[in-house]
Structures are given as C-alpha cells and as structure tokens.
Amino acid sequence: MDPLVIVHVVAAVALLVLAIVVGVWGLVRARQIAAPVATREGRWYAQTLQLSHTLVLATGLLGIGLFVEGHRSDDPLHVRVYGPFMLVAIVAAYAYRTKDATLNVRVFAIAALVVFALGLRAFVTGG
Q1: Which of 42, 53, 72, 126 is the most exposed place for a label (fewest CB within 10 A)?
Q2: Are 2 and 71 in contact (CB under 8 A)?
Q3: Is 107 exposed, middle or buried (0-12, 13-18, 19+ CB in 10 A)?
Q4: What percent of the chain is helix, strand and coil (3-state, nearest 5)?
Q5: How many CA atoms lie within 13 A of 121 on its CB side?
Q6: Among candidates 92, 95, 84, which has minimal Cα distance to 118?
Q7: How many other β-carbons are positioned within 10 Å of the β-carbon of residue 70?
Q8: Which DSSP symbol is given to 17?
Q9: CB neighbourhood size of 112 (10 A)
Q10: SS3 sequence, 44-69?
C-alpha cells in the first residue's frame, strides 16, 4: 500500500476521534460556562479544537496529494462533497463567531460534529 494512503487514513482516523471528542466536549462545556473565563480547561479545549481544524486541513491536503498521484476512491462523493464540506463547516463556524463565549463554543461543537459525520461518511466511501 502507498505510504501516502496510510498517512491519509491515519490522519482521517485521528480526525474522526478528535472531532467527536471536541464536539461532545464543546456541548458539555457550553452548558457549564456562564461567562467567558480563561481557565485551564478552556485553553485545553481551544487547543484541541485548533488541532482538529489543523487535521481537517492536513487530511484534505493529503487527499489532494493522493488525487494528483492518480488514486481515486470508489465513490466520487468522497472527493467532491465530504472533504470540501468539512472545510466549509469550519469556515462557517468562524463566520458565526460573536462576543458570546457560550454561543461560540456551541457553534464550534456543532461544526465538529458535522466534521465527524462527514468524516465518517468519507471514511466509509474511501475504498
């Protein structure tokens, strides 16, 4: 198997795990915070969220590299829909940011769950 395929799959699995963790953690965190307080957990959450966004970009770039090399998935939606819409979900979350910390955490948590759902579907169709 091509090493780039292996790296893409490992990054995709890491993204799935991180996206579900960030999504659930964010929804729980949004229920707990009443005011934007810089806590250790808040910093950890922000860094984990940023790591998930980095993994979306890295997995996408690896996928583009595979596409350029001539690798094709069994389902064309893998490349045309699932990958690009992960990036759209993240960009949309940044577009909806406000000064309300609780709302921001909810929006990013929902975006992470959307990324998880798209990633799971992409993983199933990756072939």
Answers
A1: 72
A2: yes
A3: buried
A4: 80, 0, 20
A5: 17
A6: 84
A7: 6
A8: H
A9: 28
A10: HHHHHHHHHHHHHHHHHHHHHHHHHH
Report pTM: 0.90
At 31, the amino acid letter reads R
Q: Domain residues of the chain, as ranges?
A: 3-125
Two structure tokens written together for 113 = 């769950």
**Matching residue, tokens 């690896």:** 62
Q: How far is CA 7 from CA 2, 12, 44, 49, 122, in A?
A: 9, 8, 26, 21, 15
**Using DSSP, how many helices (H) and how many strands (E) does the chain show?**
5, 0
| 48, amino acid identity | T
Q: Could you tell me which of 42, 44, 49, 37 has the C-alpha nearest to residue 89?
A: 49
Contacts of 123 (CB under 8 A, 6+ apart): 12, 13, 16
pLDDT band at 30 (very low <50, low <70, confident <90, very high): confident
What does each C-alpha distance from 98 to 67, 94, 107 come to in angstroms? 37, 9, 10
